[in-house]
Structures are given as C-alpha cells and as structure tokens.
Amino acid sequence: MAADEDDALYVLTAVLLTPARFPGVLGDDYPEACSVLGLEPYAEGYGLVLGQDGAGARWTVATEDVTLAACAIAAWDCGMEYDLSPDEHSVAAVLPGWPVAVAVAAPGVPAPHDPAPDADAHDGWQVLTPPDDASWGPAQRRMGADEIALQWSAWRERIDDASVFADAEADLTTGSATPGDVATPSDSGPSSPVQRVMLALRAYLEDPPPAGRVRSSFASGEARILRCDGPGWSMVARTDDIAFLLLDEEPGEVTPVGRGRSLPALLDALAGIAVRPAA
Predict the structure, then answer these.
(1) Sorting pLDDT into bands at 50, 70 and 90, what band is 261?
(2) pTM higher than 0.70
C-alpha cells in the first residue's frame, strides 16, 4: 500500500478504531477519538495501519476494512505472519505521524521521523504524535486505564482485600461511603472524587453517553472487563470483582474501589449498556 502515489508503506502494526475498541489516548469516547483523526464516526469503525515510507517517515492509514485489520492483529498476536494490505478503495484517510507509540521500525529504511510538511495540505499540516509520558492529563489517564484492563490480574494481585476493603459496606447509591470502600481514606466522604464518578456512572444508565464511553471486553468465566470514561476520570472494573479509578486531579494514582453493597449491581447494569466487540 502507499503513503503517496510513489512510495510504498512498510506496515509495522495496526490498531482498531471502533465503538467497542479504540486507543484510549485518542479520547473518552468513539466520536471524540474519530474527531482527533478527522474521521466520521461510522458505526463499523476503522482499522489504523501504522508504518513507514521508503524515507522512514511515519504514516497512519485509516482503512474501512475493519475485518482485514482485525484478522491481521489476531494473527500477529499469535505469532503468525499476515499481509495487511488494504485495498486502496477502502482507505478513508492517510495521516502523517502516529497517534500511538510504536516500539519497532521498518528494516532497511531511515529511523522513524515526522514526514516533511505537504505544501498542498488543506487547513495546515497536523502531524500525529503520541502523548508525552512525562506529563499527566486525560490522555495519560486513559492510557493507564487501558493498561490496567490489559493486565487486570497483575493489578488485582497488588490489592490486599483484608486491609483495603475490610469494612466495604458503603452504599454508593446515596454517597455514604466509608474508608473501607477505597484505598485512600481521604476519598471516603460524600464529596469525594470516587462518589462523583459513581454518580456519573449511574447517570449513564439514565442518559446513555456517546458510543464507547462504556465498553465491555472478555474476561474469564462469565465475567466481563468494563472500561468507562468521563470528563476527568476513567474506570476499569471486572463485573464479578472490584473497580479501579484514575483521575486527572490525582496524577499517576490508581484508586481501588471495593464491591460493598451497591457496586455489583452498578457494574451489572453498566455491562448491560456497554458496547461489546463484534467477535
């Protein structure tokens, strides 16, 4: 495939951009993620193909052939080769740069770098770049939540239920939390950020949010992993277990929330409105 008419693209990796699965770095929901890339939020979604041209420049190609991209990702995850070459008619956009970090580079070409500005580009030349790991903000908060969702078991093993949730009997419906519901006692009052997030999640049940703000993915047994986002916060939870919260106002902090009396019902209800992958 090509980054322009004369230069082939050496494919390095791909990610999906669908209502059920998209890089959290791009936004709190699917429409916002599409907007960052200048794409229409079609329900079918896109595959984002990341690679380098012959000069080593970074390019992102958005293809409407989501199935092809998903098959390639699945094959690569299994250590198998797969030729990801979308038909040119399926290409929705060719964007300079990469929106996420890529740890590999194409062999035999110069090191990855931003492409030179296109004099014919409309509305300026916006190069996609991954967020700065040295700072903390919405993008880093969502990236942290994505990592917890991928590594749930490792994060869960860090929690000592006996000490953190010894008295997890709060009613998160009314906001009468106790220190046993969260790892940080200062977050146990009715006005705490934890309570604010729980109220926002309950509001989602009454007024459904934009597509992708509540997503569900596979977990062992009959459980699901939930990823929920809102202004200033992200939540990762397993429907048969606890939840983890990340907040813009608490850089780098991950707050566990015990099940208590009302979290199980809330998670089950959120799972009912969550967007799930097609397969």
Answers:
(1) confident
(2) yes
